Amino acid sequence: MSFRLLIIFNIFSYYLLEADCSDLTYEECIYWSGYCEWNEETGLCQDVGGGGGIEFGPYQFEYLTEADGIRETDLYNGALLYYPLEANPPYASIVLIDAFGDEYGLEGWAQYFSSYGFIAMTIGNFDRTVMDGDSEWDYADRALGLLDAIETIKQENIRELSPLFGKVDTSRFAVSGYSTSGGGAHTAVTMDSTLKTAILLNPAVAFLDSINCPAETNYYCLIEEHLDHDVPVLIFAGENEYDELVSPDDPTYSNMWALPQYEYVPETTDKTYFESAGEGHGSSVWPVGDVAGYSLAWLHYFLLDEELYCDFLIETPQSTSQFFTTLQCVNTISYDINNDGQINNEDLITIVISIVNNSQTENSSDLNFDFAVDIFDLLLLSDYLSDM
Question: What is the pTM of this model?
Answer without folding.
Answer: 0.77
